[in-house]
Design brief:
heterodimer; A: 334 residues; mainly alpha; 76% helix; B: 303 residues; MetI-like fold; 14 helices; 71% helix
Chain lengths: 334, 303
């Protein structure tokens, strides 16, 4: 198991270095001089320019700059944002819980609906129910989620007036963040209606972000279940006279879940990409919206740091999935 | 199956391209969803080619007396503008019809770019192996470490917003899937007897790679290509929506959505229809992709 872990980790290091090179390269290749942008509309005097250049380290050799950057990354220092003058790492960490909260809720939503729907579709293979589930799943998979979000806003916020359009909680409530997760913080604050407000703000983004994972989970669960249900040991279980519920729920599902775990891991990249769109539509103050805003503000330092951090998250989660996979299915450890 | 097998005299002979096509169609036809998808894509293609004749109005024509007019079935709608007009009085239906051109064009360009580059890199990686292979695959791992839309977004920021750059960025982001797929099939095909036979007969490396091995790896690549077609359309629309793709007043569906965003609570039609067009197109392509997979996968065929 440890060797399995080390081989996986071994693959990760070159990828990590590659990621830092890519992120570092972008900031140097992007059009526009960051120092002139920093100066704003008033412009920068030549002396000030040289000073800033020196301060930011742009006057040194590019290789030296890269190694400075890499050392910084390894120490958790990603530089200072051009626009807010805050450390990039700090900004990311304040906004990250919002994205995590949304992503977790989206995954719970996707699993709660996708998993049972997929299992039932496999069990009732070929029936109208199966066709309906697969039809909905393919539609969900093909959904342009930015449009889906707008559509839900029209329906639930515009026509029915049930849910708010943007943000994480109503402006009526204010409390110091403790965990950064609005659902928990609003409960801890003890203010009446705060939790309700947080939930109502969360519902639509959750559905929007969870739609594609839900479709993928339903589809994969169905095909994994179909494969497992055809195995000999299921026939044996049937012959022994076990109840269908026990066969499906205990014997078949356990093996089908191996496939589903992989799907889970693969969805992290999808979730982060989806978060960019979902957070933009709902003005959700998470890292997805932050990085889009940074790109538009030409805040290169933030974009560079954000790219490294997000890629690291994807890599770590993929590593964890690989490890879980190795634990659940000893055959692939080799 | 039986009618094909028992009547070999009628129609094309086994082994010919026409026969393969017929066999393919035989399996493809069984999947109702795939045929529906194909039908819709053909319809979109007709619309795209004939947009100038089919669309009731020019896509940029502004009717100042008809700003934000609702679709025909709602109070205030008129038969002149079946799906209503947008905030500057342009006909939504005509813009959607013209937009089909962009979507098909985007899909075609992105898949061609990505598929050709990906196949070449994958072939080289799988055939040559050694350090070059490691290098190519590591680079693909790096691309895959970023969420695709984020990487595309940053690339477009780098190249400058616009449709062409958006297409290049999306093609780049889709590359790893083709490279990995090609490499995997090449590695499994490389040791087969027919490749050795060809080598013994004196075939050079280029011939072995592109003429001997590649045709036998095409099945999964065609399926992946179809699915990437839909991803390309979705991602291009997403970039357009974020303001980084096609620029207004281009009637690209995602860009139309971005322009319409501020009117969502006042005029539902300016938002609903362009998005519906994206959804239906992508759904049709995915349905077709499923059918293709069933028809091209020899393992599923005989079961």
């Amino acid at each position: 198991m440890i060797r399995f872990f080390l081989t996986k980790l071994d693959l990760l290091i070159p990828t990590f270095i590659g990621v830092t090179i890519v992120a570092f390269g972008f900031i140097r290749l992007l059009p526009g001089d960051p120092i002139l942008l920093l100066g704003g509309e008033r412009g920068v005097s030549p002396e000030r320019y040289a000073e800033l250049q020196h301060q930011l380290g742009f006057d040194r050799h590019i290789i030296v700059q890269y190694f400075d950057f890499l050392t910084g990354v390894l120490q958790g220092d990603l530089g200072t944002s051009f626009s807010t003058k805050q450390p990039v790492m700090e900004e990311f960490l304040t906004l990250f819980p919002a994205t995590v909260e949304l992503s977790i809720c989206a995954m719970i939503f996707a699993t709660l609906i996708g998993l049972p729907a997929g299992i039932l579709a496999a069990v009732k293979r070929g029936t109208a129910y199966d066709h309906t589930v697969m039809g909905i799943s393919l539609t969900g998979y093909s959904m342009p989620i930015f449009w889906w979000g707008l559509l839900l806003i029209i329906l639930f916020s515009g026509m029915l007036g049930w849910t708010p359009v943007s943000g994480r909680i109503s402006f009526m409530f204010f409390f110091e963040p403790v965990t950064g997760f609005m659902l928990i913080d609003s409960l801890l604050s003890g203010q009446e209606g705060a939790f309700r407000s947080a939930v109502s703000h969360l519902i639509l983004p959750t559905i929007v972000l969870g739609t594609i994972p839900m479709a993928v989970i339903a589809r994969q669960t169905r095909s994994a279940m179909l494969e497992v249900l055809g195995e000999d040991y299921i026939r044996t279980a049937r012959a022994k006279g076990l109840s269908p519920a026990r066969i499906i729920g205990l014997h078949a599902l356990r093996n089908a879940l191996i496939t589903v775990i992989t799907v889970f891991g693969l969805q992290v990249g999808v979730l982060l990409a989806g978060a960019i769109l979902t957070e933009t539509i709902f003005s959700w103050p998470g890292v997805g919206k932050w990085i889009v805003d940074s790109i538009f503000r030409r805040d290169y330092q933030s974009v560079q740091g954000g790219l490294v951090l997000i890629a690291c998250i994807v890599m770590v989660v993929n590593l964890l999935v690989d490890l879980t996979y190795g634990i659940v299915n000893p055959r692939i450890r080799r | 199956m039986t009618d094909l097998a028992t009547t070999p005299a009628k129609g094309p002979q086994p082994g010919t391209f026409a026969y393969q096509l017929r066999e393919f169609w035989h399996y493809f036809r069984e999947n109702n969803g795939a045929v529906t998808g194909l039908g819709f894509i053909l319809l979109i293609t007709v619309l795209a080619f004939g947009a100038d004749f089919i669309a009731p109005h020019a896509p940029h024509e502004q009717y100042r007396d008809h700003l934000l007019q609702p679709p025909v079935w709602q109070a205030g709608g008129s038969w002149d503008f079946l799906l209503g007009t947008d905030a500057v009085g342009r006909d939504v239906l005509s813009r959607i019809i013209h937009g089909s051109r962009y979507s098909l064009f985007i899909g075609l360009v992105v898949v061609t770019l990505s598929l050709s580059t990906g196949i070449t890199l994958g072939l080289v990686a799988g055939y040559v192996q050694g350090p070059l292979e490691t290098f190519i695959m590591r680079v693909m791992d790096i691309i895959l470490a970023f969420p695709s839309l984020l990487l595309a977004l940053v690339l477009v920021a780098l190249l400058g917003p616009g449709l062409m750059n958006a297409m290049i960025a999306i093609a780049f982001v889709l590359l790893p899937h083709f490279v990995r797929l090609t490499r995997a099939s090449v590695i499994s095909e490389k040791e087969r007897d027919y490749v050795t036979a060809s080598k013994v007969a004196g075939a050079g490396h280029i011939r072995l790679m592109f003429v001997t091995i590649l045709p036998n790896c095409m099945g999964p690549l065609i399926v992946q290509g179809t699915l990437s077609f839909s991803t390309a359309i979705l991602d291009a629309a997403a970039l357009g929506f974020l303001g980084m793709g096609a620029q207004p007043p281009t009637p690209e569906w995602g860009t139309m959505l971005a322009e319409a965003r501020e009117f969502i609570l006042r005029a539902w039609w300016v938002v609903s229809f362009p998005g519906l067009a994206i959804l239906l197109t992508v759904l049709s392509i995915n349905l077709m992709g499923d059918g293709l997979r069933d028809a091209l996968d020899p393992k599923l065929k005989r079961s």
